[in-house]
Amino acid sequence: MQTRFAGWAVVFAATEAIHDCTGSLVLDSGVLPGYLQSAVRAEIFAVLRALLITQDLECKVMIWCDCDAVVKRMRRLLVGHDLKIGCSHSDLWTLIQKCIRRRRGPTMITRVAAHQEEHTAKDVFTEWCIRHNALADRQAVRANGTRPASFWSLFHSHLSALDNITGINRAIQQVQLDISREVVRLGEPAKLDVAPLDLELPPPSKAWCPLPALQIPAQAVRWYGDVMVRWIVSWFWQAVAESDLEPVWVSHYQLYIDYMCSTGHPGPVHINGWIDGARLSHLHLRGLAFRTRARWFVKVWKETLRHQGIVLESAFGRPHSQVILLHTGCVSLPWPRDRLQSVDRWMFARSQSAFKRQSTALDSLPFADAHSEFPPCYRTTVGT
Question: From CA 342, how far away is CA 321, in angstroms rounded?
Answer without folding.
Answer: 10
